[in-house]
Write a structure and sequence with these properties.
The structure holds two protein chains of two kinds. By secondary structure, chain A is an alpha/beta fold. Chain A is built from twelve helices and twelve strands. In chain B, helix 2 links the parallel strand 2 and strand 3. Classes of the chains: A alpha/beta, B alpha/beta.
Chain lengths: 364, 386
Amino acid sequence: MSAAPTGRPVAVVSFAQSPQVRREDHRNEVEMLMPVVEEVFSRIGVTKADMGFVCSGSSDYLVGAPFSFVSALDAVGVWPPMRESHVEMDGAWALYEAWTMLRAGDVDTALVYSFGRSSPGQLAKILALQLDPYYLAPLWPPPTALAALQARAVIDAGRATEEDFAEVAARSRRQALANPHAQLSGDRAPGELMKDDYVVSPLRRHALPPITDGAAAVVLAAGERATELCDRPAWITGIDHRIETHALGARDLTSSPSTTLAARGAGLGERAAVDVAELHAPYAHQELILRDALGLGAEVSVNPSGGALAANALMVAGLIRIGEAAQRIMDGSAARALAHATSGPCLQQNLVCALAAETPSGGR
Amino acid sequence: MAERCAVIGAGQTKHAAKREDVSIAGLVREAAERALEDAAMDWGDIDAVVIGKAPDMFEGVMMPELYLAPALGAVGKPMVRVHTAGSVGGSTAIVAAHLVTSGVHRRVLTVAFEKQSDSDAMWALSVPQPFSAPLLAGAGGYFAPIIRAYMRRSGAPDHIGIVVAVKDRKQALKNPYAHLHIEDISFEMVRDSIMLWDPIRYLETCPSSDGAAAMVLADEDCAAASPRRPAWVHGMAMRSEPTMFAGRDQVNPQAGRDCAADVYAQAGITDPRSQIDVAEVYVPFSWYEPMWLENLGFAPDGEGWKLTDSGATALDGGDIPWNCSGGVLSSNPIGASGMLRFLEVALQVRGQAGAHQVDGVRRALGHAYGGGSQFFSMWVLGTEKP
């Protein structure tokens, strides 16, 4: 076996995403992915032959077919055969798997991609099937209802108000005006948003994410290969993820201890000292919970892309957070960044990725 | 690969057509508790959990690992869910091993399962998709023509598949966890069983099982502190190729050859038949034994069936016993089937396989494949520290 040192640095060297839209009417998953894979390669002048590993993230339930990742792999065309794997999770966790491969020294480069097309199905019903199959799924609770329970707990604990939710939504969609890939953007004042109707009290329309079809891809490279491929790689200085119990009644929904643990594991202190944070907060109140969990100060630019309130393709939005945060470093507008991804109801599982323009010394 | 990695604990459930005595959580916990007990560890000793299974539609639960987190002691820990088709059990173990070889974690619990009786795999495999030819016959209908192509290409006589089916079912009688225990299994019984997908007879196909497998993987220090003999990872590899394209050799896929070459190179194996003492290979339909004997380099092209026919792959008297546990033909909890192959070779290397133990195992090959035989995962374990 090769004798590459463990803990060698790994960086994001390229990122691309499809337009994030409400409904991909005319393209299937392969057709959505192909231009994204082409773009993520052409940005750094590589081809699939340069990739040591391919890892993807997606969910069969969104596609409504078993083995949906199998046909999606045709977007890459793994011939001659390639090292390849797949997680039934957001692409952020596919990136994590690729990071461990690169860190172990088995390969020097990896393509990570994910896709999510929610429009063909009834998302509220599909996501109910993600719940405890014996005690919770038979009640068919829609995700908005579970999120509303969490938002109500936040209000009841005196941590935030509905006006605060509107502030988050107004800022996210205003920032999304500068993001050409965003699905929802606009310049509406929080006071105006407060006139929206409730979808599920206390969540008004603006506090909910859109339903999105989209795809994204990232190229990772280790050590010197990263500096060969990119002038200013976004080095992963730490990445970790943690899960909480599935039983909502056993959790304090107003906090996110798994995010705090993951941030610590990623080498971020109690107050994450970063220029930019891309948080995967599908619901407005979840951004407030995550800011607390990460100790983000007012000086941190949160979700310059607009975040998940501007586009929330399931299985993709987490990977996009890492891509967007890395892009801020690659384009020179940030020196340190943080990206976050979530999975499960009410922020059950969370991943934190710390990125920097400076090469890390080697720790996690 | 940088840090060393070893299997220090292994556990599996009793596999059965319907495990109605347990929930999904109860099923995975049964295997995981046995693996922890084997490793002399408690839930708190585990740093991370890596879980795998085949399509979520096989149980009707989307991303069931979210609900399974507390049952697997994963609360507050990292948890990863792998899904790479039928090879998933093997891929899951490899993803878990990378958490150790990368130096990220020291003790990782890896689990794979399927509770097929909660749903209907045949239905789940046959969801019609726009612009795609419907596959309404399940996996057997898919593989039957490929087997027929092998028979034509190699000139193998018709009875080879029956030989494999009898051998694996006999070996299963020595494995208390196996699903199928057909006491009076015989050549005539297999030959006379109904033809399902010509040339695959009923008794030449795998059963549909509920079951789970679990292993504890550890770094060098933890392995040294472990009470039982570790099974060291000498090599591991994954390969994929596209499902279909003109000229693809579906009988002897390149991805399988490349994966074997990679894992052999890592383990320093140049002649698998003489250097590997026992193998657990994913054989869901009997004819896949001779096909994989060739794909994995145990026999020259076109001659795998001769090895099978000579009895070389039998636990009783063979020089390269394959699937001493009874294999996929005797237990098939789909998502766990690949991990069971990886786990059974750990048992063989550690001398824990009981009645189906092969004497003096020093190196063993675990193999899994999936999809339309375009996904492969393999590892080689050994008694010696690599």
